[in-house]
Amino acid sequence: MHRLLLSMPTLIALMVMVSVAGCSRSEFVARCPSGYAVQLDEEGNGRCVCAEDSVCPSGYVCETGGCVCVSDYCCPEGYLIDPQEKGRCVCQHEDCCEPGYQFVSVEDGLGACVCAMEECCPRDFIFDEQSSRCVCAGDACCPNDTEWDEDEGGCACRGDSCCPPGHRYQPSTEGCACAMDLCCPEDHVYSAAVNACVCLGAGCCPAGFEIDDDGICRCTGNDSCPGSLICDPESGRCACTEDRDCGADSFCNIFGFCQTQAACQSNYDCPEGTICDVQRHICVEEGPCYIDEHCPMGTLCSDGRCEEGCEITADCPLRLSCREGECVDFCEANNWCPYLHWCEAGECSPAGGQHCNDCSDCDPPNTCLSPITEGEGTFCGAPCDPETDSCPSGMNCSSVVYSCAVEGQSCGEAGTICRSFDVVNEPEPLLLCARPDEDEPHVFAHFCAPQIGYCL
Predict the structure, then answer these.
(1) Cα–Cα distance between 168 and 166 in angstroms, integer?
(2) φ, ψ of residue 299 in degrees (nearest 5)
(3) Three-class DSSP category at 68
(4) The domain containing residue 131 runs over which residues?
(5) Helical H runs in 218-305?
(6) Which of 153, 237, 312, 351 could form a disulfide with 392 if both were Cys (CB 3.0 to 4.6 A apart)?
């Protein structure tokens, strides 16, 4: 073996050369042991994660870079692996049940911890000693369209879904009523307009009512209506005007109908000062809440109380925007603003310009326009881009077509000729410019036009 002796200067020189050469090498890449792979984070930093089951402990398998328990061996005492979900251990013994719970084995039909005392039963449930189970005893545990009935000792039907086929729930009678011809009495047919079976003869109408051509009894005056209800001559029905016109647990809605508070779907179905409990479908006094839908617009449910706040704009009253958890006066689009205003940086400002001016005050590039249908007169229109709908509130970016005088003659622009078109609400066809290969009038440009067909 030959030894190479280097003087101190030579050794230093070699070290320097190695250092310099090191500067030109590529970026360091982590090398992982066998069975592992490099996983990079968002910043490009690498770490070694499992790539094969063999590098995981006994009872584990490698899943997306991590070792996951798949056998009873790696579960805590009293737990067994869930065959339906990798990595999930489920309690299978009395020792791992929470206080107040007992384990019911698979042989007994469950294989899970169940409540064994009153304190752990859900809301409106009570513990039945005989069956050793929590049993329903209140509205919260009743199915949809039902509520707890103390007299019956069970959930009573209060909606259509629990009625027999062909029947609907009638709040006035708290029972199911016929809703089709087959179950109506003789000489009666079902009327969807009144949600009841109606008689085909005049003798079926009560005093003060007369039958119309549709076989419906119509009131003839206020004296025909019971209590403080009044006769609506247009519909022929007896209408309410205030809540006291209606029975208990009902209110007079904006359409003049007595509406029960026990069939609400949202807060809009409830009278002022109440909210809809969407689980029981009844109107309740404003107060404790369970979900955001129990609270008025502009508030959220927090610790059982409705407090001001929002998560999205839909939580806020109309034309208020959710900003940093508060409903504020902040426009999000032009149509949030008054007529002929822009929405800019959350504030509404007058559009200015010559939008909807008289044609005598209309300068280029604006032009005088006339609506084809559902409008009247002329107005000054401003150019717009249909892709961005660059028009102020109350205006649409509308297509502009040209009218012409003699069918078949050239219009002189864009290769169009004068053709006849049938237009909705127009008694006679209109002559408009179109290309020979087009089925519709040719669109020459786009201008801002009033949405309702005329300027205010």
Answers:
(1) 7
(2) -135, 160
(3) strand
(4) 125-157
(5) none
(6) 351
d(CA 219, CA 229): 11
Taking only the tens place, the pLDDT of each residue in 336-353 is 888 888 888 888 888 888
Q: What is the pTM of this model?
A: 0.35
CA distance 180 to 162: 16
DSSP type of residue 15:
H
Same domain, 105 and 140: no
Question: Looking at the domain assignment, is residue 194 inside a domain?
Answer: no
Cis status, amide bond into 365, omega within 30 of 0: yes
> Quick one: how far is CA 71 from the chain centroid?
42
Contacts 24+ apart (CB under 8 A), 362-369: 366/447, 367/447, 369/400, 369/447, 369/449
Distance of CA 50 to the CA centre of its chain: 42
Q: Six-digit token pair at 335?
A: 């149509």
Count the domains in the chain: 3
Length of the chain: 456
The verdict on residue 57 lying in a domain is yes
Residue 112 domain-assigned (yes or no)? yes
Element (H, E) at 22: helix 8-23
